[in-house]
Every structure is written in structure tokens, then in C-alpha cells.
């Protein structure tokens, strides 16, 4: 049994690593994900069928098993080089917008072919293990126990790979470790092999029995299909409650496997028989357990949304609550069916093959039929009823099916629960539920409309449109004459719409979720079809790798670094692929959400960025301490800015009406957002790991990035401005350094003082309390640079608002403003006009 557990450990470890590596090659569109899963299970099925006879007839199952483990380990090592190579070759072959059928076919073919030797060998290991154990114990009824031990090892492999091996060693190092486990399994099997392995008379009789009935084959196929479909649906539903990190998926998978292992082992220990009465009882029990999960899932999700912290223990508790009971029933059910096949054929190969074949179809069925037809929650009920269709035809089966049928009818007639959180007084305006995400448009009590994905990730809204427009304008203004711009990730569409407002710029957006694109009209002003920018539904990373066009500006949106899959958009390899898509003189802008990042992840991203863009620089989007955003700017050809050219551009009659409402009136308004060049960035990043495809530091730093959400949103911003020292020599061409350098230095100093004051502001003061709390910090910033409008404009607004309630206080504030910035006229003129001073 230890060998069986170790084999399962390595098998699920490989699945975790391979799935991650395949997503880099194929993208994370649903068809690509489905193809990869189907290809993996098809390899298992093929191996189980092809090796069944060999394992059954072999003189020594120990030697066969050792050979299979050796093949898995050697091919696992080969995939250290083979999978990245295939991943680089496939996207250009597919093109930027392959049809769903082509994408699915390619995504199915790549894992099937590249992983085939290993997956075929994996398909035979369970049958070989079962024969080893049955001969060692002289008992043919060990199928459920072997399956349970193998699955228990898979639980450990899932958790160890995700929580320890990959974060420490990366994908390549983890593959080497797993190959060592395969080698240990092979040597262990040879070490315990008896000198001779005579077949017992009982085993010979078993081996000559008739092949199982059609009903047994159908039941094995259907239970594989229904079990994996149930897993896909519950994982999809759980995404609306949990943090949706790489650790979230590992916890859900571990809970599913743990239940399966427990069910198989309990069934083995109980010594139950595999007659039709037991089969009917398990089928009805599995259906009832699935229905119980469907009933409890909305309550578990809502409870976890409100109470469960972003901790491993909390997420594992939710995973166990959703999966443990139904997956235990599924494990016992497969144990029974596998034993029946073993009794009829003398081997488990047929059972594994048929069950894996059904499992390979399940994700496709769930994504293309169950979710679009019923929705995620109602699809769980349909899957539960599927188990009842497999009940043996008998009067007893009718009795067993009564309770599940009644529960299913009660759940079916109820309206599906909504898991989108709507604030008090708010309204849920629209929902789009797809295979990957549930996207919702919510109008809160104040009239602000925002986009929410999977129930708790806010992806922008009407209140942030000015900030979104600035995200587009900063990189477009840093290019001297842009004509083509590519936006990776679009959210509510405000950024691409803002980019399309720039004259003579053709904008193209790429968005992963079709459901998000369908909701874009809700954020048009007024609500209407969004037609100006061209939008492509595709994985941004795969799109860039497949694209052959060149762009003057490429803008990558704010990707929440903790979200599973987002970390791949911050890797060295992706930054390099983007650089190849830049036209001569092109600009790449990668936005980073400082309020969702921790310091180690930020430094790892910057290190990788500087490797591809050694002349890179850092900029702020705005001066808000609530949602601070950092832009990493890379240029294809390096170079310095020409302030005169920038001034002419800002004054262009066609450009000025677009950029002035966003605060870009003069060149210093834009240049003031500069945080530092390559020297400042390199000093800030220091030595340490980069975020790469093979060592995805950001993806596996998710726990710290989630914890960063509970810290003050300005924490990382302050760490950045306190560490980086902008140098005008790195920003401007030599002819302008003397003229602008001193002014910019003062402006940057004022900006940092302004941000420090904003972070120190106590609570959320209003009215006169806000004036008293904020004005000292604003005046300090203004004394450093009278040109610093983000301090001057709010101070003038405070003075004007005070005139209606406290004219003496207004006069005092205006005098303080004039004293802090005597070179400006607005405060002095208002004092003279209103107070005669």
C-alpha cells in the first residue's frame, strides 16, 4: 500500500504541474482547458485498455509495474524541455482567433501527444498495483483498498506540489522530484517482488470468467462522466465564495480526492459485497449526497463570503463541506464497480479505462451543455439525477430512488439562488453565467454602477472611469505619435474607450471572458452597444504569442496577482512576447494594482520587467492613496522624453479637449507622475527571484497577496515612494535637464509629501473636519511646489465651500494658500474679490 500511495502522489503532482504548463501554451479559454483535461484522461484510458491484457498475463506484475513507473519518471523529465518547446510552437500555428472547434482540437491533441507515454503508463499502474497486492495477500478482493490508497497518495501529491514543491523549486525542479518518486516506486516494487510469482488457481479461474455486461460498462462510463462533471460544477460554484487562487483549486481538488479515498477504503474495510443491492444503495446514496451539496452550496457560499477569512484552513473547510460526503460516496461506488470488473476479467484495466473515458468527456459536457442550459446550480441537480438513471431495474431500486427524486423536485421548482452580493439599497441589473465566470452588473445605493466577477471581485465601474481613462492616456501620451494600440484586459471597457478617444489611434482590446464583453453596454454612457473599439475574446497571453501585427502602444490592464492564472501575465516570457509585438519606438505599459500586491511580488515583477526592458521606468496613474496604481513603462528602442514635443502635443487642438479634463494640461502634469528610471527600479527591486514561466513566483505568492488586501491600501505605495528616487537625467534628453530638472524635483517632492499626508489622514472626515485634517498636508505640499495642482485645486475648493458657512475660516485658508504659493493668482484674486483684501 505505501507504493500505491507514492504512485498516486507522483501522478497528481504531475497533473498539477502539467496543467499549469499547458495553460501557458494553450491559454485559459474554456475550450483550451477542456481540451487539456480531455487529453489527459484519454491517455489514461488508452493505457488502461492497451496494458490490461499485458498486466493480466504477466508472470510478475512487479516487473511490469516497475517498468511503468520508470517510463512515467523518464517522460516526466523529458517534459522539462518538451512542454515549453511545444508551448512556444503551438500559438503561432493556431493564430490569434481560432474557432472553438480548432482550439479544442489543438488543446486536446497537444497534451494527448506530448504526455502520451506518461499517461498511457499511468493508465496501467492501478491494475498492476492491484494484482501485486492481491497476489501478496492471497485475496482478490482488494480493488477498493488499492484505489483508496492510491487516491490518498494523490491527496498528498496535490497539496505537497502546490504548497511546497512548486513554490520552492519551480516546475522543472518539481518534475525532477516527482521522477525520483517514480524511481523509488519502481525500485520498491522490485525490492518486494517474490522470487517467483505463481498464479493461484483462484486467480486463473477469475481470469477466465466472462467479460462484464453492457450495463456494467455503461455504469462505469457514466459514473466517471458524472463524477468529474460534479467536480467541475462545484469548483465553478465555489469560485464565488473563495479567493480563486492556485491554493483554492488545490484545496478543492484535495477535498474531492480525500473523500474518494475515504469512501474506497471504508468500503474495502467494511467487506461489503458487490451485488446489485449494494450497487443500487450506493447509486441512490451518491445522488442524495450530490443533492445535499446542491441544497447546502448557496448557504455555504454565503456564509463563507461573510465569515471565512482568506486562510488555508478556512478555504479547506469550505472545500470539505462541499465535497467530502458526495465524493466519499463516489469513491465507494467506483470501488464496488472496479471489484466487479476485477472478478470478471482478472484485472482493473477495463474499469480504469472505461471510467477515464467518461471522465474525459465530462468537462466538455459541463461547459457546453450543462452550464449554458441549466446554470451551475441547477446543473448539480441534473448530475445527481443522472446517478438514478443507472439504478438496477428492481422494485428495491424504486424505493431507494424515492428520497433523491423528492429532494430533486423540491430543489428544481425553487428559483436558482443568486450568489452576487448586492449592497443594501442596491440593484442587480444584469447577470451572465458562463463556464468560467459569473459576471454581474450591480447598481449600489448611491447610483454607482460596477462590474463584479464571481460574486466578489470588483472589476471597475462608473465611479472609476476618469482613472480608467488616465490608464489609457499615460502610455498614449508617452509615445510621440501613436496610431495602433492594443489593450490586454478590458474590464468595464472604460480603458479601451478612453484610448479610442485619442485622435488617429485605432484601438483593439483583448478580453478573456465572453460574459464580461456581453456586459459592456451597461457601462456605455448612455447604455448602448459599444462599437468603437474592436474587442476580441481570447486569452491575452496566447493572443500576444500568436499575433503577427505590430503596435505603437500596448497596455496591459490591472490583473489581480492572486487570481489563478493572472501571475502568468507578469512573467519574463510574456513581457518578452509583448516586446516582439511593439513597432519601432513602441511603448509597453504594464499597470500594477499596488493595493492588491505585496512587496516580494512587486519586486519579482520589476526584476523580470527590467530583464526585457532595461531602460524601464515607473509611473503613477493618479495620486489617490485608496487605489494606488503603478505603471511599468518599457520602450522597444529606449530613448528619453522631449518635453517640448510633449507640450506641443498637449496643446494640439484635437488632443487638448481629450486630455485636459483628465488633468493633463501641461507637460509637468504628466512628468510629475514619474517615479523612477532603471537605476531607481533596480535599486528598489534588489536581488531575488524573477517571475518566470518555470518559476511562477507571483502565482504561488497568492497567500501574501491576499493578505495585502487587508492592509491599508497605501502601504505598498508608501514603500515605493520612500525607496525610489526619481532622477531627471534618466527621464529627459540632455537639452532639457537644466530647464526642467529643478522644477520636476520640487514637484516630485511635493507629490510624495501629498501622498504621505493622504495616508496619514484619520478616518473619513467630511465638511469642516476634512478641511482641518487635510489642509495642513496640502499646504505643506504646495510650499514645496506651487505648480502642484493636486494640492492647489482641492485647497481652493475647500475655501470656496467654506464661504457659505464660515467666511472667516475661508479667508484664513485663502491667505494660507497665497502664502504657500505666492506665484499663483487664484487665491489672491478671490481674497480681493470676496473680502476686499
* Structural class designation: alpha/beta
Can you give the mean pLDDT?
A: 84
Query: How do the strands line up in the largest sheet?
Result: 7-6-5-8-9-11-10-12
Report the sheet with the most strands, covering strand number, pairing sense and barrel closure: 8 strands, mixed
Which runs of at least 5 residues are low in confidence (pLDDT < 50)?
Answer: 200-212, 527-531
| Helical residue percent band | 55-70%
Give me the count of strands. Answer: 12
Beta-strand percentage range: 5-15%
The geometry reads as: elongated
Question: What is the end-to-end distance?
Answer: 93 Å
Q: Which radius of gyration do the C-alpha atoms yield?
A: 31 Å
Number of helices: 32
Labels describing this entry:
about 850 residues; alpha/beta; 32 helices; single chain; 4-stranded antiparallel sheet
Task: Describe this protein's structure.
With 837 residues, this protein is α/β, with parallel strands linked by helices. 65% of the residues lie in helices and 8% in strands. The protein contains 32 helices and twelve strands. The strands form two sheets. An eight-stranded mixed β-sheet has the order 7-6-5-8-9-11-10-12, with helices on both faces. Strands 1-2-3-4 form a four-stranded antiparallel β-sheet. α1 packs across α6, α8 runs antiparallel to α11 (312-345) and α8 runs antiparallel to α13 (376-388). The N and C termini lie far apart (93 Å). 56% of the residues are buried.
